[in-house]
Design brief:
Blueprint: H1 5-45, E1 50-59, H2 61-74, E2 80-85, E3 88-96, H3 99-109, E4 117-122
Antiparallel strand pairs: 1-3, 1-4, 2-3
Organism: Lutibacter oceani
Protein name: Sporulation related protein
GO molecular function: peptidoglycan binding
Amino acid sequence: MKLTSKKRYLNFLLIFVLFAGTLFAQSENEKIDNLITQKRSFNKHNKNTIVYKIQLYNGSESQAYKIKSNFQSSFPEYKTKIIYKSPEWKTQVGDFETRLEADKVLLIIKEEFSGAIVLEENI
């Protein structure tokens, strides 16, 4: 079977398009990989992460420490800390990575600390 010049041209064109498409796809993949690498580097150097905390109390210093002590007795598995932001003292629990995680713990804590709330914080 003899190929006409028109068919040869179409075959050549098809091969060229496939070859060019492969080169284009490779360069696009390289660009994407480069962008991913840049984003990872940016994230390492520019930490602006959101964490969630549960606030148990907001008020006087003595009461904040009392709440912390009571909480640690009931829930020793959670990290508790006292924060002072003028003019009030805050008793807070944890650094949860997701709101869902914080809400799950909040449901447990609310049985004993009904005024507890979830706060979002940038670090």
